[in-house]
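Support reply, case 0932

Customer input (verbatim):
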Amino acid sequence: MKDANDRIRAAQMNFQLSVPVEPLAPELETLALDITFILPAMNESQNIQECIRWCLQGLKAAGVSGEILIVDSSTDGTAELALEAGARVLRTPPRGLGQAYIDALPYARGRWMILGDCDCTYDFRELRPFVEAFASGSEFIMGSRFRGSIEKGAMPFLHQYFGTPLTTWILNRIFSSRFSDIHCGMRGITLEAFQRMKLISSSWEYASEMVIKSVLMGLRTTEVPVHFFRDRNGRVSLHRRLGFWSPWQAGWINLRAMFIFGADFFLTKPGIVFLAMGLLLILPMLDGPLKIGPITFSVFWMLLGVTLTLIGVQCLFLGALSRVFFDFSGRAAKAMAARYPYNRSMVASLLAAAGGGGLLLRLLKEYIGGGLVLNSIEDALYTHLGVFGILLVLWAFMNFVFTLMLHGFLASTHGKPGDPT
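Our regenerated output:
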């Protein structure tokens, strides 16, 4: 297949640190395949051949064609054993689990990818649920150990009952998703979706990045149950090999990915709350102090309202930019360009600056006329209107800068600054 060979040649040029892939047989390079298993490996000689047999059994049982691509960074002969068992091998330096998938993608020849570990902890013989989901139109398929089975001793207590449930809950809250096991290592994705996803995470956070982008891209997503086994043949898991802090570090960098890609969650809704609180303090006092029971709301309360309002506006603007920065479907860019059209936003900034400036001029007139002293600062109408004028001027400047940034970003990423009207 010409496209497959073109991808391989391109990969050999782009990935300078990788040596060319070693195919099972040259004549297979032109075959169109259904499934490509992409399995990173680091010193897995104990189980690599049994894992490959499981993959081949899974392909046969599901009635699909496929290949096993081992992304190997081993020093114990894993690559040679994998080739002997019928896999293809891509030799790469040890640069992280996420980077292994990035390196392997250009070499994959199947239309559907199955990702996983090659240590026989995931049962690749149970491939049919993934194939059926792909055939039904799913673009991203998450395996779920909690909906399948977890062999006793396969997951440390803290991983099973604290770390994985907690981080899964956090991701679901931030992105309004319904995953049950975001750290499951066995997952499936179409080649086309994988290419569009453009993974950037080189380490453990690739797991969260894939899940997050599947949501942001609007991929057709489903979950299937998988079986998770404990380590075999005396194997020690990579986390245990790396030490006590390794799982905590993995959890932290996954949270970092969630917070960065989900920055809008911490901005837009809180921004609406701050904005509403601020306006509730400001608007009732435009014509002077307001007394409710024993409390008198005066200009100092208005200043608090101005502060809350500006915080809210800033959060809304940053939230909008965040949505555009991490827009993998194109919908957010169109929505923001329509919500903040350049010409109307600029006119709004100009009118607000003019209105606010007029109110401040009145305040300035009173200040100069009073001998550079403001009398009755809390009760005077001009003081309250002047505070509102300050808000209008500051909002005008913030809206001006935000509009420039938004349309500048749209121009740099979409070739045009959006609808100018």
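We compared this against your earlier run and they match. Two observations from our side: The first helix runs from residue 2 to 14. The chain has a mean pLDDT of 85. Please reopen the case if you see a mismatch on your end.
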